[in-house]
Amino acid sequence: MDQLGHLMEGFAVAFTPQNLLFLVIGAVLGTAVGVLPGLGSAMAVALLLPVTFSLDPTGAFIMFASIYFGGLFGDSTSGILLNTPGNSSAIATTFEGHRMAKDGRAAKALGTSAIGAFIGGTIACILVVFFAPAIVQLATIFGPAEYFALAVFAFVAISAVVADSIVRGLVSLGLGFALALVGIDGMTGTERFTAGSPVLFDGISIIVITVGLLALGEVLHVGSYIRRSGGPGAVVAPKGSPMLNAREWRQALPAFLRGTAFGVPFGAIPVGGSEVPTFLAYGTEKRLAKRRNDPDFGTRGAIQGVAGPEAAGNATAGSAMGALLGLGIPTSATAAMMIAAFQQYGMQPGPLLFERSGDLVWPLLASLFLGLIILLIINLPFAAVWAKLLLIPRHYLYAGISVVAMLGIYAIASRTVDLWMALGIGVVGLIMRRFALPLAPVLIAAILGPLAETQLRRALAVSEGDPTILVSSPITVVLYLLLAVVVGVSVLQHTRHTVRRRKTDKADALVR
User: Fold this and answer.
1) Domain count, the chain
2) 238, 14, 251, 237: which is closest to 115 by C-alpha?
3) Per-residue pLDDT tens over the stretch 217-270
4) Domain with 107 in it
């Protein structure tokens, strides 16, 4: 129980008035930067890194703890309200969260997001404190074949679950792969699909893809709808409290716990951050919604579709901190920025960090708990205030979204070509919405496609071209078996749904 004693000592340091002030400032600044499209939580840490130069190491790390989680909440806030997630980790939350916002339940979606972030992050931090060695050991048993199997599982499972048609899901997956292939081949250094343009050598930024597909695609879709219908339509005023009632708690609590279960182990695995667990949590909630015939999921927006991904994302962030401190492995872009913060003070995360710098590490871990509490206290009452943004007339609101989105994209590399690419991807997003193609597979393929390709080629290089290495470990076999079960169940559900719909259509035809 030495960990508990060290944690209490960390709380004693973090509970001083000065350090509590640093926590509040970090939470506010992190949320404010995270809300801006194109910046997100990783950029929040990067932009606010110079702010801490004048602080002592303890105060700086305590402020970073609240910036870390504050940026994540800001990512989800912009996604729910404006369909423009600040970072790719908030994409899965955006799907149902924005539907709830358009239905007038923006405050409820933001409240669910805040509570899910608190529950997922708190459970993950508790596990990091008491079971850090077991969590970080996950990172040592994953090789190239296991990473590839994990990526394939994410690709196919998400495409099969989130789409009403498996074929449409695979088409969207192919579009994502096409976007991911642009740039320099990481293994050979040759250029691919760049048309000889140096600006494409680094590939298409995931921020450009996300903002173009979700934000600009939505703006174009709404604009075309207004043009066809002859008017902007009625604005749905936000209503209701951000607090969950007893029935909503019964709906959301299992989703919170399922999302946390997805997120905790993925924080220790360098497989692209929290995108995989959040999408898996979303896919699980959608599959369960189909089983219980939930009419809100995918239409008005279901609270479980926000609760699961949000808990998964923050649980991943919490356990990623354990992997960062215990092994020195950054498993996300935000964690990589945290390494820069450590190195700024001459510290190198790794197995010896707890022994050499325990006086800094334990206050940092204690401040993670306090930062989550402060974020919940700040953001839950203000959820209804954030929701008032939706009362802005549509033509002003969507014009503002377009401007902010383009500014966020331009802030990445100050290149106008990124703006044109985002606009082109936005047109693709409009076409996908017209033909009911799901957006999630495009995003997950664009995010994990390069990782899957690199790990596949590494595995084949190690085995000298022997493909059996891809199924040579128990982890890969289990993942592929689970994938077969998921696909089989999904095909069966789609078949039943099609048969049921045809019977309904026939019955309606006979009545007419």
Assistant:
1) 1
2) 251
3) 878 887 776 665 555 444 555 666 778 888 889 988 999 999 999 888 877 765
4) 2-511
